[in-house]
Amino acid sequence: MRDLSNDSKLLAINSATVKPWSLEQLVEGCARAGIAAIAPWRDIVQACGVERAGKLIRAQNLTVTCLCRGGMFPAADEAGRRAALDDNKRAVDEAVAIGAGSLVLIAGGLPKGSRDIDGARRQVRDGLAAFLDYARTVKMPLALEPLHPMYAADRACVNTMAHANDLCDELGEGLGLAVDVYHVWWDPNLRREIARAGKRIITYHVCDWLVPTKDLLLDRGMPGDGVIGLRDIRAMVEATGYDGHCDVEIFSAENWWKRDPAEVLRICLDRHRTVV
Amino acid sequence: MRDLSNDSKLLAINSATVKPWSLEQLVEGCARAGIAAIAPWRDIVQACGVERAGKLIRAQNLTVTCLCRGGMFPAADEAGRRAALDDNKRAVDEAVAIGAGSLVLIAGGLPKGSRDIDGARRQVRDGLAAFLDYARTVKMPLALEPLHPMYAADRACVNTMAHANDLCDELGEGLGLAVDVYHVWWDPNLRREIARAGKRIITYHVCDWLVPTKDLLLDRGMPGDGVIGLRDIRAMVEATGYDGHCDVEIFSAENWWKRDPAEVLRICLDRHRTVV
Q1: Residues of B with CB below 8 A from A121's CB?
Q2: Each residue of B233-249: pLDDT tens digit?
Q3: What is the CATH number of domain A35-204+227-243?
């Protein structure tokens, strides 16, 4: 297991962690803080302009671990599924333009009015298969991220590493995995499924599960402030040969998003060295 | 699959659904509404007095599907584990006194300050094994209820039917399962694991998953108001031979708990006949 106690090279800052910042501010802020990698969301890349975002990132020599995010495959009708595919193609083009290591995908939930989760899962498989044809042509790895089961209805009906691994088995080359501790820490099969994932793990995300958690979406904790066995999970991931970054991704409307983002970066770096 | 369209015999009302009511009010209210079964929580049984609760229930000839709930095995030290065992023995004695069909158990979460979910799971297994010795002597079935993974930290670190089935395999006679659609509806292995559970399913609980869900604990929906494929899951459960009740258990601080409980009962009966 890698020693991060003096590291700053393996820390990546996900833009969701410093929500108040634009891409310009994220790039400058990380450069100032000696942080060498970022994982932006599409909204701030688009707001900056995709070409300009790429230039700013290259000018600071920043690594982009991944672009967040595409996916959201299930839809109520064929037009909806086509729109999702078109949007995913734009996302992968954006990922290429900013030199991202991968495009993170989440599955999507139930189409409006549906109670058919098996059907939604079939749509995810079919949508992924169609999208992979395109992603392979531009050689952009796709990192499917299983989300916590509490998002099964409205965000992602792929909720376990086992299910994501099954999809990788079925769909083959070009599809890998994003592992975020927040979504998978509770899984009794985590050790087995991370080992099974092996080289498929493209990107690794950290934060923490707070007790109590006051909001299903926007109350994630800073690494070390919650109950996730972070070191144990990183050991499992690194045992597969993973040698990439640890991306800090914290949705936190009532705490971290209200603080000075520069201070948040300092705390991320400290926790990266001490608890991640 | 049973036809519930004219049924009232297979509906049970969990006391959490009509939170404002005491046990006395629950018993009278169900009798008035022509509902023949209840599933009380321990708090209202204790507030009524256990012996008196048993008398009231028998006087109205009500079925008690289960008593909610015991469990909560992991603790920071041996004294805590002993206290949990003692409390569970009291719970099982209460279940006997009111003629419950089973005592529902939830696993319990991480001990305070712990990040060791594997360790907590070992404590659950050991605590269950010790408690089973006692429960068998009074012939009270224990119904282990896997809870949704969003409760893994603070309420229950047994979060899937597969894990609960594994514990039943290991611990043997006297340990069965409580299946609550709210906790398991998202599970991609649900069909397989319900079939595997077979005759172990002692009690079946219904409610619904709302979109959006505003609170992790207290925002459950009335059957039919959410996205769970209720008929599909009941079909899986009944395919095992389950011929017991459908218990309606709704934690709903901002909606159903604020309504007239007698009206809530009428709606439960209507949904039992039309969507459960």
Answers
A1: 188
A2: 999 999 999 999 999 99
A3: 3.20.20.150
